[in-house]
Amino acid sequence: MLSRSARSLAQTSRSSRPSRSLTTSRIRLSPSTTPKSQSAWAAATESAHSVLTPPPSSSSASTSTATSLDDPLSVINAEIGNLKSSLFRMLGSSNTALDTVAKYYFQAEGKHLRPLLVLLMAQATNGLGGTGWEKMKMESGSRRSIDDSLTSQGGVLNDWNPEVNGQEATGSQVFASPFQIPPFGQQSIPQPPLNVSEFDGSLQQNGQPMILPTQRRLASITEMIHVASLLHDDVIDSSPLRRGEPSAPSTFGNKLAILSGDFLLGRASVALARLGSREVVELLATVIANLVEGEVMQLKATSEPETTPSAKGFEDYMRKTYLKTASLMAKSARAAVILGGCGDSDGSGLSKDGEWVKDVAYGYGRNLGIAFQLIDDALDFLPPDPSLGKPSLGADLRLGLATAPALFAWEKYPEMGPLILRKFSEPGDVEIAREIVGKSDGLQRTVDLAKTFAEAARELVERLPESGAREALIGLTKKVVERVK
């Protein structure tokens, strides 16, 4: 349900995509018993929380003090459950319209795969960094809040957030007059108040490695970057729906959707700087650049498609898949390990313990992300299912995109070529392309390739010491390909 301010911003049009069925396919959806409001992958990632044992009862859940020994991942369960509250706190704005639109996609339940990956990787690797881990724990204990500003003065100089700092006093800053340097020893702009929250502490549980506040914040940052990309993608693709509900552009308009995506990236950048690691800032900043590079590669693939099936064309498709999807998973997993003290991340010379863990985390996230996207591309050719969280029925084809199933089918059926070259733009092109893919081995080859990447992710993460978190990470490599069978 939209708030009154959201309803006043929303447009009335709520269009939906057409619905047809695929008559020929070698792959069928796994049976789903999840509610329609929950995507199949959301159910899969939830099961990763309880790979070893059933989840704890609701009466025993806690945000930061869970101590259940029966469920090694109860702390992570609680943190994922509180993710929305954490994100809303980070995205507070005095501008009502911006506050509403920036939080719009967080209203619905999403997959939360990226925050889950960060938290699991943190718990699976914390303690492997030796002296680096001890240093990170000590620094964490000395901080008042993960929202501590690096700037000595408050106000708009360091971005006033009413969720964190409270409402700014009327007249506290005047812009109708020039800024003047105050007399020595006086501040023109006072440091804003800081409301310390439940998200500022470590997540601890008996018998399990603690998760540091910086790693908790990283989990939220990854979701903010992901959702910012969704806001921008929905504008580019003119998508009327997102997770079965009206998209932000169709509800609030393209301008507010784009600006809200920019706002998310801005707040994510502020939060990144406060984590205190230059390497983590660099990693996540390159993710933002990767997302843009991937989108431009996708635009080029539709405007200047390959004229024949080629290794280069498929490599470009796979590179775009990494840039748009897997980069965030790979680099945020690596960042989680760095924040746990693995490797000499900032050149301090303190410790190189656990340097190898950084590569394990990156490789796991990269391979899992590519497997995830390949399965997503296969699902686009299957009959629609309310639990999928995406429209299916050739949505990618309608955008002019030739994904792995179509590229594989093209190798056997040359008639796919003209459809790709004209971006499936003529009446009946999408249906013909889906029929060609259905009678080819394109879907099966796509799923097989996804399994190859998922297996590689599993082999990497199995190098970590045994733990409940490691088993959950292994479980994700299975769940990602079980969305089709």
From TrEMBL:
Gene Ontology MF annotations: metal ion binding; prenyltransferase activity
Provide this UniProt record's keywords sorted from A to Z. Answer: Isoprene biosynthesis, Magnesium, Metal-binding, Transferase
- GO process annotations (BP): isoprenoid biosynthetic process; ubiquinone biosynthetic process
Q: Please note every region of biased composition (Low complexity).
A: 12-35, 58-68
One cellular component term from this protein's GO annotations in UniProt = transferase complex
Q: Which cofactor does it need?
A: Mg(2+)
Q: Which InterPro entries match?
A: Isoprenoid_synthase_dom_sf, Polyprenyl_synt, Polyprenyl_synt_CS
* One matching Pfam family: polyprenyl_synt
Compositionally biased spans, kind Polar residues: 1-11
Question: Which parts of this chain are annotated as the region Disordered?
Answer: 1-68
What Gene3D superfamilies does this protein map onto?
Farnesyl Diphosphate Synthase (1.10.600.10)
Q: Which PANTHER family match?
A: ALL TRANS-POLYPRENYL-DIPHOSPHATE SYNTHASE PDSS1, GERANYLGERANYL PYROPHOSPHATE SYNTHASE
* Family the UniProt entry places it in: Belongs to the FPP/GGPP synthase family.
Protein name, as recorded: (2E,6E)-farnesyl diphosphate synthase
Q: Which organism is it from?
A: Kwoniella bestiolae CBS 10118
